[in-house]
Design a protein that fits this description.
With 452 residues, the chain is α/β, with parallel strands linked by helices. The chain is 46% helix and 12% strand. The chain folds into two domains: 20-272, Rossmann fold, CATH 3.40.50.720; 276-449, Orthogonal Bundle (N-(1-d-carboxylethyl)-l-norvaline Dehydrogenase, domain 2), CATH 1.10.1040.10. The chain has 20 helices and twelve strands. The strands form three sheets. Strands 5-2-1-6-7-8 form a six-stranded parallel β-sheet. It is globular and about 60 Å long. The structure holds D-mannonic acid.
Length: 452
């Protein structure tokens, strides 16, 4: 008897590859749980295909090509459910630069989305493009606009050079990362990269390129072997490109896009005039507590968000952080209460195992936007920001190598912060985060409270 078990997911009937009108950088799990999910579910999905490029590696590209670019999304709610996502029309490795420029040169392509993490935009501490780290790409593009580049700003500018040369018209950037004012941020790095490569491109960008900010939210851990097994049980096939996520999802986009976009509002994305309250609510309450958990949790022996939040001491630290940060959110008390309750339930989701090392990565990029704003606001109001300082104190141990290994966009500098005594590290960390040195005593005491 031969088995009819399919080997992998296949494109569902009626979901042929849609024409590519979105080019995306960063083929990670979050993108496939979030942006692809919204594009899959919008009313005009048949008109909007995504061509996605992996940022650095070729992860998932081969698997996705084998299975018509479709993959399984495992949604871990009270009951697990699976969906086949078919919004990808093409996938490419980071090295396929001709294909990248080809999409930009196509007038059909209207949007550039990205999910490349905070560090992917290659900014310095002041938020400008770090020209020293993109110098090689600048040199390549000056010599040859079709030359191979590796940084995201380099790729964006290579794409725009191709678009200008092809006369393909306006285009819109819509970044999907956890940063503040993401549209303005990308405008800055793209414009600064353009100025370094070809100053004439700057005015072309001003005239032709839109940049929208967005707040994105869907907790998307690394899939575990048990998740892959669950996908196989529920679908009958193996899917090495499967993604695991939670039921909750949110996408809030600021303003109107300069060029056509999918009707994402039909999939419950929100379009708002002012993104800032949404960004602050998410970055401070969700991501801020995530970072606190990521650095403090391992000091109490926890490896996942779910384990850490089940520890009453850690949960108390999270609640204290939420009290502190919520004071600066211009939102009704009831809304904040409901959001906190929903966060707690999301962190407790027993079907997810969100490893803290995932969240601990890139603290240099995350703490300044997740924790430091509340810390400074408290200082300005003459209050002691104990919960924020506890997150910093936990990071002190992290950079000293006591919890999960350091993995940071500014690796060498961050590792060096851990040199010397604990007091030295506290001094280094405060200086690195541009915080007042007179916080030293409070941070050192909180660090010692963790023990060790
Ligand atoms: C996490 C986020 O990686 C991190 O630091 O805080 O990936 C978080 O899971 C998402 O922002 C949730 O939307």
């Amino acid at each position: 008897m031969c088995s009819h078990r399919p080997l992998h997911p296949t494109r569902p009937a009626g979901r042929d590859r849609a024409p590519v009108r979105i080019v995306h950088l960063g083929l990670g799990n979050f993108f496939r749980a979030h942006t692809c999910w919204y594009t899959e579910h919008c009313a005009d999905a048949a008109d909007w295909g995504i061509a996605a490029f992996s940022g650095r590696t070729a992860t998932h590209v081969d698997a996705l090509r084998t299975q018509d670019e479709v993959y399984t999304l495992l949604i871990q709610g009270p009951e697990p459910t699976v969906e086949t996502i078919s919004a990808l029309s093409a996938v490419h490795t980071a090295a396929e630069s001709d294909a990248w420029r080809g999409y930009f040169a196509s007038p059909e392509v209207s949007l550039v989305t990205s999910s490349i993490t905070e560090g992917g935009y290659v900014r310095d501490a002041a938020g400008n493009l770090d020209l020293t780290r993109v110098a090689a790409d600048v040199a390549v593009l000056r010599a040859d606009p079709a030359g191979p580049v590796t940084s995201a700003p380099g790729k964006f500018v290579a794409g725009l050079l191709a678009r200008r040369a092809a006369g393909a018209g306006p285009i819109t950037f819509l970044p999907c990362d956890n940063v503040v004012s993401s549209g303005a941020m990308v405008r800055t790095v793209v414009t600064q990269m353009a100025a370094a490569v070809d100053p004439g491109l700057v005015s072309w960008i001003e005239a032709n390129v839109g940049f929208n900010s967005a707040m994105v939210d869907r907790i998307t851990p690394q899939p575990t072997p048990a998740d892959f097994r669950r996908v196989a049980e529920l679908t009958g096939y193996d899917d090495p490109a499967a993604v695991v996520t939670e039921p909750f999802t949110e996408w809030v986009i600021e303003g109107t896009c300069r060029t056509p976009r999918p009707a994402w509002e039909t999939a419950d994305a929100q379009f708002v005039a002012d993104i800032v309250p949404f960004e602050h609510r998410k970055l401070w309450l969700l991501n801020g507590s995530h970072s606190l958990l990521a650095y403090a949790g391992p000091l109490r022996g926890h490896a996942t968000v779910q384990q850490a939040i089940a520890d009453p001491i850690v949960a108390g630290w999270v609640e204290a952080w939420w009290d502190e940060a919520a004071a600066y959110l211009p939102l009704p008390e009831t809304e904040i209460r409901a959001y906190r309750a929903s966060l707690l339930a999301r962190f407790q989701n027993p079907a997810l195992q969100d490893v803290l090392s995932r969240i601990a990565a890139d603290g240099s990029q995350k703490l300044p936007i997740r924790v430091v704003p509340t810390l400074r606001a408290d200082l300005d109001h003459g209050r002691t920001p104990t919960a924020a300082l506890r997150a910093i104190a936990a990071w002190v141990w992290h950079v000293r190598g006591r919890s999960t290994p350091v993995n940071d966009a500014r690796q060498a500098e961050v590792v060096a912060l851990g040199d010397g005594t604990l007091d030295d590290t506290v001094t280094n960390v405060l200086a690195f985060l541009d915080l007042p040195g007179d916080l030293h005593g409070a941070v050192a005491e909180l660090a010692r409270d963790f023990g060790g």
